[in-house]
Records
---
Amino acid sequence: MKKALTRQQYLDLYYFMRLNRAVEDTMVKLFRQNKIVGGLYSSLGQEAVSVGTAYALEKKDWLAPMIRNIGALLVKGVPPRDVFMQHMAKYDSPTKGKDGTSHFGDLENLHIVSPISMLGDLIPVMTGVAIAGRYLGQKIVAMTWIGDGGSSTGVFHEGMNFAAVQKAPFVLVLENNQWAYSTPVKRQVPLENLADRAKAYGIPSYVVDGNDVVEVYTTAKEAVDRARNGEGPILIEVKTFRRLGHAQHDPAEYVPKEMRAYWEARDPIALYEKFLSAEKLLDANSKKQIDEKIEKLLSAERDFAENSPLPPAEFAAQGVYCTGDDCHKVAPKWERPIAEVTPPKSSVPAVWTVKGFGSGKASGSGSAPIHFGDTEKHEENSKDTEVPEAVAETIKAPAQPRPVKSKSAKATAKKSAKPAVVSGKSAARKARR
Ligand SMILES: Cc1ncc(C[n+]2csc(CCOP(=O)(O)OP(=O)(O)O)c2C)c(N)n1
Ligand SMILES: [Mg+2]
């Protein structure tokens, strides 16, 4: 670890890592008391990643956490009670008890976009936030996190490519904790460094030790500054380890003992404490003060959360569907008259149709629109619908059985290769063959 920060910065990083761990320890206790409503994920051993990266952001910047980034929320200013209440589905929680994990954000004050469970989807979303900030002249940076597993989704690549081509002020932290559920990295990506994925988009990247909070922070700060100065998106791969299973239900017995032992000996908080005492930034007394501060804070926050009521039953039906003005204040700004850009005026007549298609009867006597078999009978070769030439080209005659070299077979093949007309049942069958 290098010495390059102010004393306060060093101590802040320590405090938030300790707070991150203590908040999650408290939630494990709540989980065992059956007070946690949804799944409980852990970032044990990964605290330096969430804290070190989020600490590099300014107040005006935006972040969107994933399941193992509670530390980032705490750094951005979310009170621990919100995290507790959210997981306990309490009425005073940010989502008023509608979610049992960490799907909440704060667009107005803290600039936090709610997590999206579909891995990778936050990348284009946060790219959009970054571009919007630039459009509004705000000089903000947007940040999100993705796992080693999540970096193999299609939307990861689409999102990164989009961010790169737009030169979005966006920092992506690729949290390589060696596992995606029970799949080790080596079995899903043929790369030594996942940061190499950045080469495909022509953007810069870093590889850092995710258990060294100072290295994580200084790298993230450099990346955030570069993104803010117009250099475009940056990918940071942090190498770390998921110390517990995917969630509370997973004992992670598939993790080799040696691997676990290696990383447990590299606990990010223990490593940092060693550094801080060697640099005379933390002694037994100041450590005790921090212990007491966190204990006092979390005891009050937990009490508040436990005393918060569960939502009233009738609330279950509210706030589920968008109700327009009561739900949000975002309104479309129509540049053309609405009638001109919405149906029926905006509807285009079908290029070609199939007679009877859409008029079949369903068992409940309504119409069963997509069942060819239900369409009315009509004669073979009847002229139902003229097919435009371009369409006819695409409906070439279906492959014939093994050709028999006889005059009559050739003649038949030639005949069926001319589908100028698609006729109801028989044509549909032909086309599907
Ligand atoms: C697109 C998509 N596919 C699958 C899942 C199910 N899923 C949730 S977490 C997870 C593993 C993620 O592993 P990784 O990205 O390495 O993150 P980690 O859990 O290690 O933090 C999977 C497959 C999902 N949420 N979204
Ligand atoms: Mg992982």
---
Amino acid sequence: MKPPQKMGPSEALVETLAANGVTHVFGIVGSAFMDALDIFPAAGIRFVPVAHEQGAIHMADGYARASGRHGVCIAQNGPGVTNFVTGVAAAYWAHSPVVFITPETGSMTMGLGGFQETEQLPIFSKITRYQGHVNNPKRMAEIAARCFDRAMLELGPAQLNIPRDFFYGEIEATIAEPLRINQGAGDAAALERAAALLAGASFPVLVAGGGVINAAATAEAIELAELLGAAVCNSYLHNDSYPASHALAAGPLGYQGSKAAMKLIAQADVVLALGTRLGPFGTLPQHGLDYWPKQAQVIQIDADPRMLGLVKPISVGVHGDARAAAAALIRLLAGRPLAGAGSRAARLSRIAAEKSAWEAELSAWTHERDPYSLEVAASSKHMHPREMLRALEQALPGDCMVSTDIGNICSVANSYLRFEKPRSMFAAMSFGNCGYAFPVICGAKLAAPARPAFAYVGDGAWGISFNELLTCARERIGVTVVVFNNEQWGAEKKNHVDFYARRYQGVNLENPSWAAVARAFGCEGVTVERLVDVAPALRAAARAQSDGKTTVLEMMVTQELGDPFRRDALSKPVRYLEKYRNFV
Ligand SMILES: Cc1ncc(C[n+]2csc(CCOP(=O)(O)OP(=O)(O)O)c2C)c(N)n1
Ligand SMILES: [Mg+2]
């Protein structure tokens, strides 16, 4: 270890950022951290000023998800910091290693009710993996380093809370080397039991989750699937966990996922859940298929032991790294007789048949067919959302990154998003906040500037997030936003249609021209009315990205609505008071 050196706490902080390879910090300028900000450029750090701190934390999240490195953001104590809350919760559920730096009101006035004061640790206590509080300026380097280590080790947000007077002074500090600890494959006996189950399987199926992406385990997942002749399903919203063009790839499970994946996993006698917590929403019945194979033996491998057996009963739990565990299973299975070997060819042709059936169904599924959708589409000249999504899918360039928001059309897009490599799809994960996709893709683009970057956003969610167009224009960040203009908060309207006899409350939107708004911000804006214009518009927007130009493609679509997310969540209203008698 290097001997301690004299420096200021701001220098200790900034040197720790540099030691962790930080090159971008997102935020809004504030007096609280100016002393550190001042020396960012000399440390090779670009401060990316945003429009709203929620944008900063989402950008840090997108940056981390695209790169696998830390995403970092900073805000003024009090209101700047509280603006982080939603984004921290989203990053928590996306398993993003973000470090968010929260200068706090000064230590000598804390508790007196001064300016911009709030207790900043309790607010984040349930949505962080680690909270570091600098309780003495002499500990700045140590605690900052721990935040970076924990965010990476536990894959989630770490808070670095710093009383604002602690940026100043003279300290002796050593800048720590980042601590990187490999997790390993997990318990040998559990892996052996898993291998035995897989060897005895007649219809094994893999579920590739976010852990495959985070552990860079794609090659091992492919090898294992090929060894077993097993279909591979992506876990919900991780369509980039396994290459879509691979013969064994069956597509995503979950809401608006692939019927092929669902029909195949329904047949499984052994399921290998690799790097997935099998979250409750990821395996909900879909398309009328209650596909989860309740009789199957389930092997679950996860880096977080608390996820093992939490949602689905399992036969074997392995607390390990997805890549190391998959490699261990490959070794354990090599040369072992496999009960499923004889039926391998039949399985492969079954997989191929289910996939082509689903492809044909998707191609023919040009619009929704429920009475509400047929009615609204009949009186509209706009594009059917599904046709538009299909056209987008076909036009998306290879190697692209796509973020998706929360909404009906974004959810239907799940059927039309396929990727060849990991770190390509950044959906709003379990926290499910509208307004996630756009700032996230901005952060991803800064992490991977050469990759074409697209955000899919509903028009309602766009109203929450379009302020970051300012950031794109000012900072020359070139991304493409596809805004689905159906003039409604569609996903929620679907509940009014299905459960509340179409009594609409706050779901209809009156939009400005979103293309004109984009132009007013100094970005490009294009209104797309016809299906034939979708692909050319997308390609032109993708080209503009290399000039640092952001384009908003405003897709004019009908108001038809796909299946709701949660049939389980609502029930028909029951009223007891006379006054509300008709509200059923
Ligand atoms: C921050 C936030 N507020 C409210 C919701 C509830 N919500 C879920 S989906 C949805 C509607 C989304 O509408 P839009 O973005 O227009 O997409 P569409 O459903 O029309 O495709 C709303 C309001 C949410 N998920 N997040
Ligand atoms: Mg909408």
---
Amino acid sequence: MTLQETSRFAFTPDLTICRLLNGMWQVSGGHGRIDPARAVAAMLAYHDAGFTTWDLADHYGPAEDLIGAFRQQLAARSGDSGLAEIQAFTKWVPHPGLMTRRIVEDAVAVSRRRMRVDRLDLLQFHWWDYRDRRYLDALKHLADLRDAGQIRHLALTNFDTERLAVIVESGIRIVSNQVQYSLVDRRPAARMAEFCAAHGITLLTYGTLLGGLLSESWLGRPEPSRGELTTVSQQKYKNMIDAWGGWDLFQQLLGALKRVADKHRVGIAAIGARAILDSSAVAGVIVGTRLGIAEHIADNARIFDLSLDADDRTAIEPLLARSRDLMRVIGDCGDEYR
Ligand SMILES: NC(=O)c1ccc[n+]([C@@H]2O[C@H](COP(=O)([O-])OP(=O)(O)OC[C@H]3O[C@@H](n4cnc5c(N)ncnc54)[C@H](OP(=O)(O)O)[C@@H]3O)[C@@H](O)[C@H]2O)c1
């Protein structure tokens, strides 16, 4: 299978990505047992279908090691030209504390070793506590490591607009911010998107499919108890639905999305992903992949055939307008982590 040309996006002048990224939080536990050999076989299948871009983190269990094993197999099969087709975006999520050059460089070295790369394609930095301004120390060291060739591009995850401005003003070059963005959580559209557009920063989004809750599987179902939510991702986004407007309103949204999906002969998830891909600030939508357990290659390939029209948006918008304002309830992007 080859994806449509529109699946590709010039993320930076030297890095083209698939606009649907394969998310690897799902290998870290809490989403079913991952078998490493089956997982790597599934990675090859995603890659061969055109889904060449991966989102992972230092703390997603074996994710960085799986990238290393996947690269090894791809190199054995296709050599350096095969390896050049992969984009693997990791994160560094340190505990708050002293951010010396040594500490930062050691963390980057661990990811490079595990992923079997000389240079990280993208390092997305997370920080837990803005009262501790040592995030700027960490970013300055990361920028030096980028300039020294250990990281290709520097990025952020879960930073709010205010702190993004602090970072930009301090002269640190950032290419993207990874944030939660879905039809339910539209906070990035409030402030973040405009700031990013003005500063040449793009968004990578997660939670766009609400851990799978945004699908036919949940349409028409009574509100689930916590025990019925079988992954930690579903539990996380059920909390978001509760903050947003509750299960009844969510069911009405699923119903409206189903009508739009039927019109386009795709699934509800495809409509949810397409709607966010259409936001001008968004470079890519990350879709969690339970490697070797569940697979959505053909369904998600269809997202690139799909184009939403004004009628589709008119069908969805009134329901979204009835929700609570998550900027008020939670705060700007990432505030739920603080
Ligand atoms: N920066 C951060 O703080 C942060 C936080 C969370 C996630 N992330 C990143 O974002 C990724 C996405 O994870 P997420 O937890 O937000 O989950 P998600 O992408 O909203 O949902 C993933 C789930 O959606 C279902 N799905 C995928 N395609 C589908 C389709 N076509 N039809 C129906 N269902 C479909 C699958 O469920 P089944 O497997 O059950 O089929 C899959 O496990 C993570 O892996 C991670 O890389 C980052």
---
Amino acid sequence: MRRLFYCDHHEIELPPGHKFPMRKYRLTRELLASDGAYGFEAAPFAAREDLERVHHPAYVERFLAGTLDPAVIRRIGFPWSDGLVRRTLASVGGTLAATRDALDRRYGGNLAGGTHHAFRDEGSGFCVFNDMAVAALWLRTHAGVERVAVVDCDVHQGDGTAQIFNGDPKVFTLSIHGRKNFPFRKQQSTLDIELEDGVEDENYLAVLETALARVMDWKPNFLFYQSGVDGLACDVLGRLALTHDGLKRRDRLVLGACAGAKIPVVITQGGGYGDPIEQTALAHANTFRTALEVFGNGWESAT
Ligand SMILES: [Zn+2]
């Protein structure tokens, strides 16, 4: 059976009224568990040396020790706690473990991660460390994999990922995001697609298809998919008008392109802030369901 990595058992205490929908992670896992098609493994913690391939050792040290400047903590958006440290290390560790699965089995999945607003020296927007960047440099060091693409379909620009890999010719960063949405100071990805508010399925998918063709023409050897579902119409932060069907077609485009070109892919969960949050959890679950449809369930390589 296919497996997914999770870290929602590490609880983070949030102050009353905090807007982050922590509950969605467990809801997503429960939906997938009810399908019976996936097994679930607690994500291992990322090793410090893996984090430090991307992040400044002083930033890593201060986060782990709880000595970050209050302004830096405020930009991350979560109060510091031991639980936050454990959950953060497991979120990155889940993406690293899913990366190993992808090398062996064509794809791997993390029910967390996609923390694309984390920069080299600081976190931002609910992101502490950049899991996809950490895993991309792990691949380069430990698996000799070069030419890595990051396809980021969260409605918020993958600004941390863009900054980390700016000037690195071996990483192609694609971000498809809302022009008027956070972050308000954008970074430069290899390819940025800016969407106006209210974009619907057909326009979105046409734009994605064209952008994805450019990524595939670049011939990546490995792909990270940030599959944020905050483009869903009921999302309170998204400003787009995508449907569940549109998001499924989006997932099929990205994952189908990887399967067709035999490129291993890691699916990270990314953002989603629906009202009700059950709709967001359903959209996240659908992404992993679509992966099963595209790649199948077995250990053997898909052909
Ligand atoms: Zn987002």
